[in-house]
């Protein structure tokens, strides 16, 4: 049901790091549209393709991402990212100049920036979204403190910072979203998921495999799965995380592989699956928590944030996690079958982000 607001034009911009930032912005976009406001999206490549498929009626402005290059081997991941910091800073300066022009030419009246650092403006409300106030690196201590200081420097330029998690000990992001000190104007907006739970859904799959994340590691995991799943007597659906290129293939009589599913299709597939296998990307974790699904996590090699989240959430009993270099699908399914899973039950509203959006639109 639409709420009455003075109609505003809001710019939404996801970070081009995997697809998670684009997918977790989907419920925010729907909430803005439901309030009777207009949304303009800025993205490129597969992020633009995913959002265009979900919102074919919306304008998508081309805006280059940070275009980070990733290492083939996991142990080079952190060093490869650090080498590209000058390129990231150049991209931030560009998007700051780009925004100044777009606000004028398109009449933008508010910005929601999902982890992009240069999209702040002195004359309109601008929100920065991040679950990583503390940025994990393979180098630890000093490096993380320096990056946190730089992170906060940019966050303070925004009107507000939204953390998609819950305050307190019962949370999904651990130290990443709950550091000792928070930037000003920070608020927790709860689980940010486009999916809706539903009771009584018939189980169609023993396993749903969600392959995602940056290349080349997305393809590396896909290859491992395809090599091993053919030998197992299970009903499975593999979603390869490649929007914009519709394709499906029957791998075996009981295993179907598709390139991409829209939000509604993926929601149904998750509800119809006994177990999910995925990366420990934060958006996927929020989806799993909201739908109360059991999952096997395979963190992207070398991506310190995902490694930390896998270990942290396994320790809490929410999910089972194992590294990619020790991955064996049959053994992982056996281990998960005996793992003492705990439900991520939370006393707070799983859709409290809607209130944050309403307050933002009233600014």
Automatic annotation (TrEMBL):
<feature type="domain" description="Glycosyl transferase family 28 C-terminal">
    <location>
        <begin position="221"/>
        <end position="338"/>
    </location>
</feature>
<dbReference type="Pfam" id="PF04101">
    <property type="entry name" value="Glyco_tran_28_C"/>
</dbReference>
<keyword id="KW-0808">Transferase</keyword>
<protein>
    <submittedName>
        <fullName>UDP:flavonoid glycosyltransferase YjiC, YdhE family</fullName>
    </submittedName>
</protein>
<dbReference type="InterPro" id="IPR007235">
    <property type="entry name" value="Glyco_trans_28_C"/>
</dbReference>
<dbReference type="GO" id="GO:0016758">
    <property type="term" value="F:hexosyltransferase activity"/>
</dbReference>
